[in-house]
Amino acid sequence: MRLKKWICYFLAGLLLCGGLFAGFNALIDPFGIFGDKLLSWWSYDMTQNPRTAKIGWLDEHYEAYDSYIIGCSKTSSYPVSLLNEYYGANFYNMIMYGEDLYDVEKTIEYILGNFGAKNIVINTGLQDMTVFDIESDNMKGNLHAKVDRSNALLFYGKYLFSNPEYGASKLKTYFEDSYLQNENKVFDPETGAYDKSLRDVERISSLDEFLQKYPVFLEDRGHVDTLDAMDECLESVARIKAMCEEAGASFTYIISPLYETELDKYANEDLMEYYLRLVEITDFWDFSGYNSVAYEPRYFYDYAHFRNTVGTMALARMFNDDSVYVPGDFGIHVTEENITEHISSYFDKDKSLKTEERQVIVLMYHEIGNGDGDGYVSEENFRSQLAALKESGYESVTYDDLLSYVNGNAGLPEKPVVITFDDGYAGNLEIAAPILEDYGMTAVINVIGVSVGKSTYKDSERTIVPHFSFDEVLPWSQSGVISVQSHSYDMHQVEELDGSDYRIGVYQKAGESEEDYIKAVTDDFNKSKEAVEEALGTEVIAFAYPYGYYNDLTEVLLSRMGVEITVTSNYGCNTVVKGLPQTLRAMNRISVTNENDGESFIEYLRGFE
Amino acid sequence: MVFSSYAFIFIFFPIVFAGYRICLKAAGINTAKIWLVGASLIFYANGKAALSLLLLGTMLFNYAVVFFLSKVGKKGRAAKLLLTASLAEGLGLLFYFKYTNFFLQNINLLFGTELGFLEIVLPLGISFYTFQILSYVVEVYRGNSEKNTLLNFAVFVTFFPQLIVGPIIRHDDMSPQLSVNNLNKTDSRNIMLGMLLFSIGCAKKIILADPLIDHARNFYDVMGGGNFFEAWGGAISYTFAYYFDFSGYIDMAIGLGLFFNIKLPVNFDSPYKARNFADFWRRWNITVSQFFNDYIFKNIFHFGDRLPKLILATMVTFVASGLWHGAGWHFIFWGIANGILVCMANIMTLKRKKLPFFLAWALTFLGAVLVRVLFDSNSMSQALEVYKSLINIGQFIQNPGVFLSEGSAYVTGNIEVVVISIISALICFFAKNTRELSESFTPKWYYAAASGVLLAASVFFMGRVSSFLYFQF
Q1: Over 70: is that where the pLDDT of A577 sits?
Q2: pLDDT digits (tens, 9 = 90+) for A150-186
Q3: Measuring CA to CA, which residue among A552, A498, A549, A506 is closest to residue A525?
Q4: What is the mean pLDDT of residues B375-389?
Q5: Interchain CB contact of A301 with B (< 8 Å)
Q6: What is the distance between the alpha carbons of residues A140 and B469, in angstroms, rounded to a whole number?
Q7: How far is CA A178 from each of CA A183, A518, B345, rounded to the nearest angstrom?
Q8: Which of A338, A564, B2, B287 could form a disulfide with B167 if both were Cys (CB 3.0 to 4.6 A apart)?
Q9: Mutation for A interface: B446, B461, B473, most A CBs within 10 A
Q10: Contacts of B453 in chain A (CB under 8 A)
């Protein structure tokens, strides 16, 4: 065989194999470079490289958006829905993790040039001023060639000829994927924001409990970061502003909320210079500084990222929305007029700033009356327990009261207590309700939908403790003494009565697919909610977990169905924090039994504080 | 620079080869050789000029030694002095770069001192080129080799295909190949075989060895001892990985050599088909084994010596080999273990005892896996931990269900590694090796196409997968 012929066959093999791999890379498209036609799994692509994949997404969907919020990963915490509401626009959250202002400028230039925009909002942390254009060749970190106008051939070539392991990982992950947000899909492609559905339903309570779980907040961030790239960054801001003006887009510059220890990293002189120079270029909103948000770790996901609830506060401050709780010292619109005053107080540290919070006790009763078993509290004991509560200064509140407190619309008494009854037994109305009324107290009854009004178990003949009907509870509901909430429709099953196929609380059954499980939980709650709302005309905003069992998936599902409060059977107190709806999730309760007469009751409760 | 990199395949080699051919045609053989030496020094420096300066210095020093050796006549006092100087220089540098910290560590251990370690960067390939140079100097001293021109000596020492990990070539094997006639000829068979061997080597390294090494390194660096399955998985995958990594590199080297019409010696001959440890060492890293055999073993053991001398010679040779492989007690123990296994094989041969083929092969492979643990562990104590895990079948006896579920968890969790290991085993145990392939090679279309496929696949998998992921929520 001659060398020429050999080379031909060699090249044929090379091209065939190379073509197959390149085709695979283009088809699976783990970085969203080639339109992700096959799997259309943009959440994954954006996680791999938000800079490239978001441009890929926008190229196809830009018509759905007319405004953009752009910046580092902190930017993700301004909810797009609120931006849309306040601006009357359709926002896309163009966050790029580890971004710098070079990325921002280039991206805005591309957006204005190709899609057009009504509003451009830039959110920056102080770290933005430390570097400029740190773009690397990293497949996961570089800008799209369309955006930075780098060599297109090299750019597409790099991804086309990349290691097929990237594509293989995407395929593998695709087939193993499950419902909940996970590290492989951290973005919501439609809004562009991080999917924080899990962190946003995590139970938060006292500061101690929180810091134990996230000790990172206690760590000193150590070194001082200097704002080395301030010159280039400020020039970039000026260019961006000019670009927006030229394109007829509004321009808003925000300095984001920062946690105390992150703020500590910067030198006062640097910040002063930055502020004085920035205000010459543009007015801006400043949410950083040692305000009461900065001192409250529970308002942050980690030391560098404030929660969506804080983003909500910031937007509410910008648009004077009184319906949202915003701490008084949080956020200021900085102009040339007030800059001197602003920086003169910026560095004042006041560690005494405290977030408003309340210790809330949620009591868990079952049936009132004289019966056997742990579930019964005698009428006499119940009355004396209420008397003791009153005497010790406790005031009963409803779930609505807790919600109003968290949302900043109302206060709470000094010693709030929520009295709850599980299951919906007849005695709750016959005995307990009149006593509650006597004491001017209220209670929540969590009813099991399938058992309402029944004395036998579901379709069987088996007698059970009688449950009240909706008709019976209606007048109590209307008078405000009793609020009815959900304890599931039929997820409070009993092994002896439901047989071997029974479900343990809201848990997944063995062998049940995730899809079926999600449908079961969703359908069950909807059925329960509809039954209550139809019969009583009140809204279901809370769910008491049968047997107290719950998991991340049920928390996410219930939250998506509008459940604002969930309670478990874990014993303990709760700390409810203003502006932090997570403090109403998976709340602890204290089970009350017949052993607690009035005298020992308060002592018993104090044991949980 | 490594062969299996974009920079080498797409930039360095095409330029060097084209330049070399142009020099040959346009400017003559000496220019071509200078080009080759220059290219080799750039290849070796890979951005760190000091490395090439060290190599250059050693080369010139030893050329001077050879030059004077050829003047003073063999085996006189002056010759002895020259040889000693060369040995002192070569072994001295080797000791300094490779063993200083190990030496300090043991001094500290022995005398309770707290001598600080030095920051020494080991120059790549120093163990190989030192041996290659020393063997030439010794042969000149012994009168077996002649002085060569400085240029030929420089090509012999620096020839980039074999500079970093061998194969170690003897001067007298290389020298005739540097003739005008040989270098000048256009041998398309050499080019074709060179392409095939390079592609095979590249694929062995990138597709088989790298993922297995990642897995095994993770085991040794992160998991320590691991459970029964993790330990076997780590040990076996490293056994295959090391072979494919090393022999793949050698295949590439031999293939590249052929582009220049230089045949480098065979260095691997299916070692995992060996049926005892003496056989294994005749098949594994052959040129280095040969070096130890010629310059250590044969200096102790002479034909007609008795068994104790044979054992002594074998043990000394393997302890030296262990030390040469790395500075650490586990390398010394690795050498001792190999020495013992080779002695056992030799004794069996002397006593004309033979195990059935399958048993002999299986025991040898098992031995290879177990001995590797000493080599791959980060310390002796870790090696012992791994051995403990390897024989830890207590769980199997107490709770076979849990044991088996651990096994299936390992397989499902590391399915890629398991598949690659199985493919590796099939290749190691049953496939033709590259020596056999080269010997029977006639250009065929499927070899050409296979070269293309393997090279393309290797190039695709060459890019490191970045695991960087910035994720907070």
Answers
A1: yes
A2: 899 999 999 999 999 999 999 999 998 899 888 889 9
A3: A506
A4: 83
A5: yes
A6: 8
A7: 11, 11, 56
A8: B287
A9: B473
A10: 13-14, 16-17
Chain B CB within 8 Å of residue A73 CB: yes
Q: Distance, in angstroms, between A81 CA and closest chain B CA?
A: 20
Taking the Cβ of residue B464 and every Cβ of chain A, the question of whether any pair is shorter than 8 Å is answered with yes
* Residues in a beta bridge with A68: A92, A120
Q: Which of B334, B183, B329 is nearest to B259 (CA)?
A: B183
Greatest alpha-carbon span in chain A: 106
Determine the Cα–Cα distance for residues A548 and A294; give it in Å rounded to an integer.
Answer: 34
Cα atoms in the Cβ-side hemisphere of radius 13 Å centred on B155: 25
Q: Does A166 touch chain B (CB under 8 A)?
A: yes
Structure tokens at B215: 């897995």
B330 is catalytic: no
Determine how many CB atoms are found less than 10 A away from the CB of residue A427. 24
Comparing CB atoms, the residue among B443, B452, B463 nearest residue A163 is B463
CA distance A423 to B298: 91
In Å, what is the CA distance from B148 to each residue of B89, B90, B153, B291? 20, 20, 6, 21
Kindly identify which residue of chain B lies nearest to residue A308, measuring between CA atoms.
B473
Instruction: State whether residue B473 sits within 8 Å of chain A by CB.
Output: yes
Q: How far is Cα B229 from Cα B220, in angstroms, rounded to an integer?
A: 14
Query: What is the per-residue pLDDT for B76?
Result: 79
- As a whole number of angstroms, the distance between CA A389 and CA A438 comes to 13
Residue with the two structure tokens 């041998």 = B187
* CB < 8 Å to B462, chain A: 163
The Cα–Cα gap between A202 and A551 comes to 10
What confidence category does residue B66 fall into, taking pLDDT thresholds of 50, 70 and 90?
confident
User: Which residues of chain A lie closer than 8 angstroms to B465, CB-CB?
Assistant: 163, 165-166
Report yes or no: A313 and A327 within 8 Å, Cβ to Cβ.
yes
Task: Fill in the DSSP letter of residue A456.
Answer: B
Tokens (6 digits) for A485: 């909430």
- Residue A600 structure tokens: 């020992």
Q: Report CA A441 to chain centroid distance, whole Å.
A: 33
DSSP A29-94: -TTSSS--TTT--HHHHHHH-HHHHHHHHHHHHGGG-SEEEEESGGGGGS-HHHHHHHHTS-EEEE
Q: How far apart are CA A158 and CA A163, in angstroms?
A: 9
Tell me if A17 and B452 make a contact (CB, 8 A cut-off).
yes
Strands A482-486 and A443-447 turn out to be parallel
| Whether A266 contacts A299, CB under 8 Å | no
Of B171, B215, B325, B330, the active-site residue reads B325
H/E run at residue A301: strand A300-302
Tokens 């177990």, residue located? B370
Residue numbers in A near B197 (CB within 8 A) = none
Q: Are B129 and B157 in contact (CB under 8 A)?
A: yes
**SS3 category, A526:** helix
Contact flag A47-B469 (C-beta cutoff 8 Å): yes
Measured from the Cβ of residue A271, the count of other Cβ atoms closer than 10 Å reads: 20
Q: In this complex, do A10 and B463 lie within 8 Å of one another by their Cβ atoms? A: no
3-state secondary structure of A577: strand
Task: Please say whether the dihedral angle defined by the alpha carbons of residues A507, A512, A515 and A521, taken in this order, is positive or negative.
Answer: negative
